[in-house]
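Bench notes, afternoon.
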Amino acid sequence: MFRTAAEQALRWRDASARPPRVSFNVSPLQLDADSDPTRDWAAHLRRIGLAPDRLIIEVTETVILDGSPRIAQHLGELRQQGFRIAVDDFGTGISNLASLSRIEVDYLKMDQSLIRRLPTEPRRLAICEAIVAMAHRLGLEVVAEGVETEEELARVGDIGCDFAQGYLFAQPLEQAAAADWLYAGKLVGQSPGLEGA
């Protein structure tokens, strides 16, 4: 999966004036393994000529809550090598916010369960505002997941989300269709300063 993501990022870098970063998921089992499967990733990117910051490693919120020193070490090493780290589905569990000071990450991806009905539920909006404010104080960027309507896009823009992703932008796409979508310039959301991810 890593090599596939790297190859795709390389193709998009060479074909687009504004190439996106490519995200892929890494499981807790991989990060907690005795034989670190990520140890050769930076060397592979050097061989193909791709900067590590073109890739975003997504880990679930449970990885942050786990507290494993080995996971923290592996993520720290990957980040030092230049990879970006995102916490996926943030807000689905009992988030130990103190863990965010122990493991350095670049992005928080607010789970779609928080985004749903955002325009009509003031309490949900307040929770999302608090998450965005906290993330920004920690120097993190925030992605709103599961954005499906223009109204939801407007609300996540109003509360300061940096990026949005969801069916409003596109359904899941095969590789060729994703390239067409990218080249059509549909990465930018319709709220000022908010990008589609």
